[in-house]
Amino acid sequence: MDFTSQNEEKQYKKWLKESPFNTVSHTAFNHAIPSEEDLLRIFRKDKELIKSKNFIPFHEFYADTFIKFLPQPLTEEQEQLLNSLTWRYIAQKIEAMNKLLKHAYELLDKNEKQKAVEIIKTLAEAGHPEACYLMAAFSMQGQILPRNTETILKYAQKAQQFVSHPRTNLILAGLYYEGYGVERNPKKAVSLILDAERHAQEDPTVYPILAEYYQDGYIVGRDVEKAAVYAYRSEGI
User: Fold this and answer.
1) Which residues, 6 or more positions from 2, have their beta carbon under 8 angstroms from its beta carbon?
2) What pLDDT score was predicted for residue 32?
3) Are 199 and 179 in contact (CB under 8 A)?
4) What span, in angstroms and rounded, lies between the C-alpha atoms of 98 and 102?
5) pTM of the model
6) Of 26-30, 54-58, 75-79, which range is least confident?
7) Residue 60 needs a FRET pair 20 to 30 A away by CA distance; which of 148, 179, 217, 234 works?
């Protein structure tokens, strides 16, 4: 293959290792792997999209070169592998996505909400967990976005597809506890809170919320000792 520089060749080898066209895919989906020339073209297209801050969903990016060649229906093992490849594709772009998300926060600080939401939605559609959470939270609050159950559930589920996201659990817990747009289910709400607790170390920003819930007895029963523990932990945030 003809590379423009040694640096491009180095970047390409790293991209190939982390892309859906890695050695695992060659074993599981060998008939779906493009030619070397097509792979280089896809790599360059991917780099251009990142440079232009145009993040698109995994399935959309690989629709013509990979997804349509997969066997249908997929086995459970193949589904799991595809989910793993999807997350690797997202993770490969997280650093660039985070920079764009930071810009969206700056726009929010300037009260340029529409521009900020457009950026966050783009990132959410591409699978960025934090952006998915923000879309669900905005819709739940009903201020920046209209309050809409379908929107909340769509992005909350996307936020949790690949990683645990405790704050998303808290959103869903409130949804099911209040019965807003879904059948009221206090038991499910409590279960979601407990799951958020189990993963709280991954997202310490949930500590002050958990402290408040246990102090007030919202969703979970009132527990002043737990409230004190989470209030203490929240001081280090």
Assistant:
1) none
2) 85
3) no
4) 6
5) 0.90
6) 26-30
7) 148
Residues 182-217 have pLDDT tens digits of 999 999 999 999 999 999 999 999 999 999 999 999
Render 81-100 in DSSP notation, one character per residue.
HHHHHHHHHHHHHHHHHHHH
Tokens 């405790």, residue?
Answer: 166
Orientation of helix 129-141 relative to helix 113-126, angle to 10°: 130
pLDDT score, position 50: 92
Q: Which residues of 46-72 are buried (b: 16+ CB within 10 A; e: fewer)?
A: beebbeeeebebbeebbeebbbeebee
Report d(CA 111, CA 75) in Å as an integer: 47
Q: Could you give the C-alpha distances from 39 to 24, 32, 92, 141, 200, in angstroms and in order?
A: 16, 12, 16, 43, 40
Burial class (CB in 10 A: 0-12, 13-18, 19+), 167: buried
Please say whether the beta carbons of 192 and 173 come within 8 A: yes
- Residue from 137, 205, 106 nearest 98 by CA: 106
Burial class (CB in 10 A: 0-12, 13-18, 19+), 79: exposed
Give first-to-last CA distance, the chain, whole Å.
Answer: 50
